[in-house]
Amino acid sequence: MRLHQRIKEPKILLLYPQQQFQEDEHIRPEGTLGIPYLHASLKQAGYYVDILDTCVGNRQDSLDDTFYKQRKISENIVRIGLSESRILAEVEKYDIIGISSIFTQQTECVFDMSNLIRKHFPGKILLAGGVNARNLKEHFFNNSFDIVFLSEAEKSIVQVVSYFRSGKPALKDIPGISFRYDNKTVKNISVEQNAILDSIPMPSWSELPNDKYWEIGRIWGGRTGWLEHEKETCRYAAVLTSRGCSFNCDFCHVSLEKDEEAGKIGRLRYHSVERVHMEFQRLKEIGINTLFINDESFLMNKKRVYKIFAFLKKMKFKVADVNGVNIVNLFRKIKGRYVVDDELVCALYEAGFRKISLPFETGNQRILDKYCSKKWNLEKHNVIELVKKLREAGISADGNFMIGWPDETLEELTNTYLLARDLMQSGLIGCGFYFVQPYPGSRLHRMALAAKEISEDWDWNKIGWSKGTPYNKLKYDKSTLKYTWSLVWKLLNPSSRVHEISQQLLNK
């Protein structure tokens, strides 16, 4: 039995899976930070460990044979990345293979890879981690995986590798993992593994195939409006100065990660500003010139962020936050009234921020209150004024909107489109519309199954922000939603942005 084997000097390979897309999806490499964090932890513990992004390959692979080579696997889905023979050649020399699974729409890629490896190398240990893996763990066990991590895994993966080397600690004593024993699933519920974030080693950014990522040049949120005329190569990297979120939106996995199997990893936790400074210095050393802040709630603690701004100002990065700027944090309350925080907007620009994505989510207060933690208020927060002031300060802002909520009316859908129009007229450089998806691990997923709004045998290949709605009880026709999604996006966005994204959808 694989779980009982001992490996004297284990070699570990951490994999990003190949990726697959519909023809109307934005194609770019994953390159998320989970794997670089795990690599750093294993390296610090003295283990032999490498990273391979099978979407782009390593130095011996050309992008024409990986990222730009589309293989049709169904009528409307193409896959990109290393060939099966190249994957097998790479994994052969390793004993333990860890595969990241964050995005539900890539589940089939992960399973094809795990079953391929199992077929050719039946003795290798297969590990899976990420929000998708832990919420679909039974499917992962049925597709050749030996262990699934239930939570943040920087500490538990070191313990798991130690178990395969020496038998200690026993699997039953390692928190935050799940495995099958005697045909039964064992779940070791996570404890507070990373309460003190500074105890985690800095991620191994330099081990990523950065040159390939930079050559592809498809950055988060696009270049239009802030980098399209930049002559210098955009040598970008992501950083997390905190983990968790202050909100509990139903569409986000964080909503169920504050008191369940994953432990309390959804709770907002911070790196010290000293540690953040060290990470910025490290990124400067490896040649990064464009920094993406990937926190969920970066501006929540303003006293802290002003200290971080002081470091950024000296280092002269171009900075973007396309993930974790909550609208309410860009306001302050004066005499009972919310006003745009002009001081903060100015400080953002001086720190190097040139791009911010604003999560408006919807143009309807009912939906904000019901599904989005009441995260901002349409009447109290003047977002038109906010967009104007960001633009005046020299910060490009785009907006994200979600459509196709389970009980959304046609009038509410129209309200969202109209809000996007008004914001574009006020200075947004672009707007994106995303179909609400009941991803596994979110409260929306549980709600949808309980209300029979999605099928019990839902198809993970049909899940995705731009793949249409999976809901079967919408208050309006699905075809209306899909048609207006495409039409309004093209009508509201500048032609340069439409062209940039369209080129990437075609993978040219």
Question: How would you describe the overall organization of this protein?
Answer:
This protein is of the alpha/beta class and 508 residues long. It has two domains: 2-188, Cobalamin-binding domain (Rossmann fold, 3-Layer(aba) Sandwich); 233-505, tm_1862 like domain (pyruvate-formate lyase- activating enzyme, Alpha-Beta Horseshoe). It is 33% helix and 18% strand. The protein has helices at 34-44, 84-91, 107-120, 131-135, 137-141, 156-166, 210-216, 273-285, 302-315, 342-350, 365-371, 383-393, 410-426, 443-450, 478-492, 495-505, and strands at residues 11-16, 19-22, 48-53, 71-72, 77-80, 96-100, 125-129, 147-149, 177-181, 184-188, 236-239, 242-243, 269-270, 290-293, 318-321, 331-334, 337-340, 353-361, 396-403, 430-435. The protein has a seven-stranded mixed beta sheet with strand order 3-1-6-7-8-9-10, with helices on both faces. It has a six-stranded parallel beta sheet with strand order 11-14-15-18-19-20. The protein has a three-stranded antiparallel beta sheet with strand order 2-5-4, with no helix packed on it. Helix 9 links the parallel strand 14 (290-293) and strand 15 (318-321). The longest helix is centred in the last third of the chain and has 17 residues, at 410-426. It starts with 10 loop residues before the first strand and ends with a helix. The model has no long low-confidence stretch (mean pLDDT 94).
